[in-house]
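step=encode ok
step=design start
structure_in=
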């Protein structure tokens, strides 16, 4: 297995600010076809919705390295240096499997999935899972793809609470060439889009969690780059002046990931920490 290509500090900061990283056409066509062959042959059973007697019932929370060994396409996908590097950079060396699912949307499907966040019962603030979305074939906008809302991942919502919305300022559709990979924080808001073409759309989703501390698990040579503060201050516009709340949450997460309890951007968090202790009674 080739050495993973780790993310830079600026790329991880972009993940903290945006809630996702997008990599267009990074998976070779031969691997995409092998993944499609795996899925067409039935694919590995998923822990999601597994029957009580299924071996997959006990897969969640176990090492990722134990999964997909009998599925050459999926194994090849995870062994790609760019893919294994993303996983290691965000989760550390001991990622654990949560679940997977192959979404196949039939032709001329006009129904749109409501906006939702998958992690309705996940209260974690400084740790996170990631979801990998592989688009193994060309996915033009008329075929739909996944719509996501940048910067929504640290705003906890009940899954159904945002289903009444139709569109957000700054929403981004995953219209992409074959072999593209979308890597999302588990809390990002998203929705599947209609497929208006005459061909089925396939997307493979894999959710993974950390097997240990998520601290400086990427290439940290640019950790002191001043651009990081500007990345963490991005304004995605849909939340108006409440962007300040989002920046504070990003700073908290960046402190946890780097182990630097004094990191700040424009004094946002430090000014909240200068309250003197209450006098002893």
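sequence_out=
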């Amino acid at each position: 297995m080739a050495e993973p290509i780790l993310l830079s500090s600026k790329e991880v900061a972009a993940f903290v600010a945006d809630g996702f990283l997008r990599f267009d056409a990074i998976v070779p066509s031969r691997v995409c076809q092998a993944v499609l062959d795996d899925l067409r042959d039935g694919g590995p059973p998923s822990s999601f919705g597994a029957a009580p007697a299924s071996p997959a019932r006990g897969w969640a929370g176990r090492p990722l390295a134990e999964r997909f060994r009998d599925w050459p396409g999926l194994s090849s996908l995870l062994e790609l240096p760019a893919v294994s590097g993303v996983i290691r950079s965000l989760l550390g060396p001991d990622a654990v499997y949560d679940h997977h699912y192959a979404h196949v949307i039939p032709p001329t499907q006009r129904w749109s999935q409501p906006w939702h966040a998958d992690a309705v019962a996940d209260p974690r603030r400084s740790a996170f899972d990631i979801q990998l979305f592989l688009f193994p074939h060309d996915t033009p906008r008329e075929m739909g793809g996944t719509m996501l809302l940048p910067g929504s991942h640290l705003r906890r919502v009940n899954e159904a609470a945002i289903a009444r919305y139709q569109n957000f300022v700054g929403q981004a559709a995953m219209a992409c060439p074959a072999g593209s990979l979308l890597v999302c924080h588990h809390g990002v808001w998203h929705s599947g889009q209609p497929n208006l073409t005459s061909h089925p759309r396939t997307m493979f989703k894999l959710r993974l969690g950390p097997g240990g501390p998520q601290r400086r698990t990427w290439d940290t040579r640019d950790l002191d780059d001043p651009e990081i503060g500007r990345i963490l201050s991005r304004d995605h516009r849909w939340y108006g002046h409440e962007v300040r709340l989002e920046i504070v949450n990003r700073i908290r997460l960046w402190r946890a990931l780097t182990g630097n309890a004094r990191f700040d951007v424009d004094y946002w968090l430090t000014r909240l920490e200068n309250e003197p202790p209450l006098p002893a009674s």
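step=design ok
step=annotate ok -> The longest strand covers residues 96-105.
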